[in-house]
Structure formats: structure tokens, C-alpha cells
Amino acid sequence: MLESIYVGMTGLLGYSRGLRVIANNTANLNTPGFKSSSMQFADLFYGTGNPSGGAAGQGQDRFGFGLNTTGTSVSFKQGDLRATGNDLDMAVDGQGMFVLQDAEGKISYSRAGQFKFDPNGVLVDRGSEAKVMGLDDSGAFVEISVAGLMTNAGKPTSRVKFTGNLSSTATEQTVGNVKVMDASGAEHLLSMKLTNTNAASPGSWRVDVTDGGVSVGSGQIVFLGGRPLAESASFSLNYAPAGQPTMSVAFDFGTDVTSFAAGNLSTLAMGSQDGVGPGALSGASFNESGVLVMGYSNGQTTQGARLALGRFDSPDAVVAVGGNRFLPTDGQAWHIGVAGANGFGAVRSGVVEISNVDLSQEFSDLVVMQRGYQASSQVISTANDMLQELFSMKSK
């Protein structure tokens, strides 16, 4: 009976540990990146009913000594991806964990991609302030930062496109307000005068470009059948704005310009130019490959560092330490790489991976734990009653 009480106590202890695991799972039902655990149970050693403790022979009874717990098993099944609307919230769709580095340089891993840029422009985890690691071209860890990238210098105009009809019967045509931008982002309005030189060369026009009456350069376009010939549909000139370096600008008539008879009425005008002024950083996100993409108010985009990801060969190589983070227990079983390559999943921006806890399964396990605990308690109570009865018989 004393052995029965001991066996019942092992049951109480084992089921209370199982209840603690269930409680932790349900408490973290909404924790991003949380991975549920399950308690592993095993029976204890066995012995015989031989009071002398001799070895058990064939046919002898063997009695178990109760319940044992052999640890917890973590399920790394992927949780659902939930949209947050924050571009710096990220999830790995597939295998892989984000790589974090704390202030002491210690590396940990996480599936909870809730990040921000700190005051220094460095990408960090919102909860722990640990740096989010990227990989450089040599495969070394680097921090991901927008420091020095808060503005975009823009770019000078390299091509101006024109649209409309240049009347083949007109003698000349002037197009004003031809906007170009220099390297500093300043705008300049050029004027373009087209002179019909059909008498010297059929279908040809001389083009003179000026800036405030000062000649910038000239070129020639030739039409055949109302369309510009490919070899003469554009020309380039070197333009040197005051105080700025010389820039090469191409005047392109090849796409939407025609030359048909329309008297003295021409509709030729500037269509577009590819120069942009300076712009401020307006947004930062990561693409599916984990590359930082920065957008600016001038419409330009640039790319930055690429997120580093880690994955393991066996669940035994990782241990949960809290704070949505995991540590490696066997560095040889871990691999570092980037999204979309060598078995790593894709990075999804604007979403987080929620907990993979199955609440219905947890409630089912909770009932099992409760029944097991009650049964073990009843075993102890019954064994205690039997002992009391034995002591009562002895006293009589």
C-alpha cells in the first residue's frame, strides 16, 4: 500500500507538470511566433513482488513504480499569418527564423518578426531591442540600417520625350518650356526651335536648343512617310547648367511624334523627362527575398541589406528561452542563409505569424490531465484508507 501511495504521487506530479505545459500553451495563444509544447510521459521502472528483492523468475508478477516525465517536445508547425498593416512586421512563410543579436553580441533566433528602426536607424526587435541581422555578399552578419539613406539625391535628366504632330508643310516650329533637371534637382526650361530643311534633305528638320537665348546645341531629325527614321529619331547634346556639371541629354522623337501636313498648325510638345529631384524616405519594407526596399517621396526606390535567416536540422538542436526567442543547442545542426534559397522560406512583409497553439486540442488534453490527476488522487486516498484500516485492526 505504501508503494501504491508512491505510485499515486508520481501520477500527481506528472499530471501537474502536464497541466503546467497546457497552461503555458493557452496563455500564449496570441503570442506572435510562439510554438506550443507537449509533455512527454513514460512509465517508471518495474520490480517484483518478492519481499526479499530477489530477481524475478519466469511467471513472477512485476509491478510498475509509477509515472515519469521525460521532458517537453516543441511543435514547430507554422502558425497562421495575420496582416497588421505595418511594413516592418514580418513572417517567414516556410522554414527559417530571423537572426537577432543582443547588446553582448549573443545570437538568438525568432519567428516573431515585429521590428522597428531605432533612433540610430538600425533595425531592431521591438520587444528586446536586439539587432536584426542581415547577410553581406561574403556571408557575414551585418546590421540592417537606413542611416545615411534618409534622403535620395534624385538624378539629372538624361532623356526628354516628345509627342504630337510636326506639320510637314510648316517652315518652322518653336517648342518652349522643355523642362530638364540638373544634378542638384533644380529645374531648367529650355527652348527648342525646329526649322524645315526639306529643300536640302527631304523630310529633314534642324533642331536648335537654347537656354535663355544661349545656344545649348543642335541636332537633326528626318521623317519618312510621316514617321521619324530610326537612325535619326533622337539626338544628344551636352548641357552645362550654371554651377553644375555637364550632363548629356537625349531628345527623343521616336515614339509618339509624327510629321503630316497640317498647314502651319503643329501640336509637337514635350511629353516627359526622366529627371527627378531630391526626395525624403517615405517608407521601408522587405520583399519576398528579404531585401530591404526603401521608397522616397520623389518616386525613387533603392535596395539595402538582405535579412539573414537560420534553420535547424532537428528540433533537438533548439531550445526556447522566452521572449519569443530560441537558442541553438547544437551549432552543427544549424544553417544560415537567405529567403528563397537552400530550403529557406519566403519573407512576408506586413504580417506576423501567430501562435500555432490548437486551442481545441489543448482543452481536450486538459480534460485528460484533470481525469488523470483525479484518478491518481483517488488511488492515494484509497491506499490511505486501507492503511488506516490496517492500523485499526492492529490496535484491536
Break the fold down into its secondary structure elements and pairings.
Elements: H1 2-27, E1 37-43, E2 46-48, E3 62-64, E4 67-74, E5 81-83, E6 89-93, E7 97-101, E8 107-110, E9 113-117, E10 123-125, E11 131-135, E12 141-143, E13 151-152, E14 159-165, E15 172-181, E16 187-196, E17 204-211, E18 214-224, E19 227-228, E20 234-239, E21 247-258, E22 269-273, E23 279-286, E24 291-296, E25 301-307, E26 309-312, E27 318-322, E28 325-328, E29 334-337, E30 346-349, E31 351-353, H2 359-395
Parallel strand pairs: 14-21
Antiparallel strand pairs: 1-4, 2-3, 5-31, 6-9, 6-30, 7-8, 7-11, 7-26, 9-10, 11-12, 11-25, 13-23, 14-22, 15-16, 16-17, 17-18, 18-19, 20-21, 23-24, 24-25, 26-29, 27-28
Helix pairs in contact: 1-2
Description:
There is one protein chain. With 396 residues, the protein is an alpha+beta fold. It folds into 3 domains: 115 residues, no CATH class; 141 residues, no CATH class; 115 residues. Helix content is 16%, strand content 43%. Strands 7, 8, 11, 12, 13, 23, 24, 25, 26 and 29 form a 10-stranded antiparallel beta sheet that branches. A 5-stranded antiparallel beta sheet has the order 15-16-17-18-19, with no helix packed on it. Strands 10-9-6-30 form a 4-stranded antiparallel beta sheet, with no helix packed on it. The mean pLDDT is 90.
